[in-house]
Amino acid sequence: MLKAQSTYYHEPELIRRFAAGEPAAFRAVYKQLYLPVFRFVQQWVGNTEDAEELAADTFVKLWNNRDRFETLEYVRAFLHVTARNGCINFLKQLRVKTARQQELEKQLSADTEPDFVLQEIRQELMKLVYAEVEQMPKKMKEVFLLSYSEGLKPSEIALRLNLRVQTVQNQKANAIRLLKIALSDKPILIALLIWLETGQSVPA
Fold first, then answer.
1. How does DSSP classify residue 108?
2. Which of 23, 39, 42, 141 is the S-S candidate for 136 at Cβ 3.0 to 4.6 Å?
3. CATH of region 1-100, choose from 3.20.20.60, 1.10.1740.10, 3.40.50.720, 1.10.260.30
């Protein structure tokens, strides 16, 4: 079972705020329990990038089920089961994914999707999200900033960081999902993130 010390002022208050959908409560839970989840996943999947993806997806699922929990122990139990199931599914698919990897990377490298962030909103969005980006796992943060700040395409980021193109795509998607959760109290920013996620131009 995943364990971590509570750093919030009162655990019942943390759970109440978390269940109510407060981003600050999510951040508190995330800061406490991300590392145990990541280490648990990593010991099964081995690869750091895959472990970061699975851990991030586990916390997205936690947020989507936030109103189900009455105690932090229930949260830990949910994270444990969800992370374990994620590892099982990953290991089942690994052989198939490996067999298809070369063709998949070729398809993704040829993808002509727009830049992750449009030039005209780059500076404004960076000011709003930089604090949240700093709290992301290292590899996810690197992928986000290369795509966001430098406008690199997934194939270019993959080459620079020695990652699979699919990993870059997944890291970008997970970064956006975590930002949408952490910044859900800022509707204007969420609208921008949705536009970016769908690859459309931001309206004037």
1. H
2. 141
3. 1.10.1740.10
CATH class of domain segment(s) 111-204: mainly alpha
DSSP state of 65: T
- 115: nearest Cα among 203, 201, 204: 201
The greatest distance separating any two alpha carbons of the chain, rounded to the nearest whole angstrom, comes to 51
List the chain pLDDT tens, one digit each, 204 residues. 454 444 444 688 888 998 898 899 999 999 989 999 998 888 888 788 889 999 999 999 999 998 888 888 889 889 998 998 888 888 877 766 555 555 554 554 554 444 433 434 445 555 666 777 788 888 888 888 888 667 788 888 888 888 899 998 888 888 888 877 876 766 555 555 655 555 543 333
Q: Are 193 and 180 in contact, with CB atoms under 8 Å apart?
A: yes
Residues carrying CATH 1.10.10.10, the chain: 111-204
Residue-wise burial string across 16-44, b where 16 or more C-beta atoms lie within 10 A, e elsewhere: ebbbeebbebbbbbbebbbebbbebbbeb
Are 49 and 169 a contacting pair, CB within 8 Å? Answer: no
Domain with CATH 1.10.1740.10 in the chain: 1-100
